[in-house]
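Usage

Read records sequentially. Each one opens with the input sequence:
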Amino acid sequence: MSRDISLQQIAEGIPKSVLNASDKDLEGFQKIMDETIKLRESHKNLQKLIQSYSSGIQRT
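and closes with the structure output:
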C-alpha cells in the first residue's frame, strides 16, 4: 500500500481555518511543525541508539 498522496489530496485536506489564517497564525503553526519534525527525527535517532546499544549488550 502506497502512502504517497497527491498535491490535490493535500490541498483538499486543508481546513478553511488554515486557508483563512493570518500570517501570525501561520508563523506559529510553522514553528509547531518545525519542532514536531525535530522531535520526530530525535525519536528516530533515539530508537537507533537503543537498537545499537541492545545489540551490543546481546553480543556480550
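Summary fields computed downstream for this record:
- Residues 11 and 25 are 18 Å apart (CA to CA).
- Residues 23-59 form the longest helix (37 residues).
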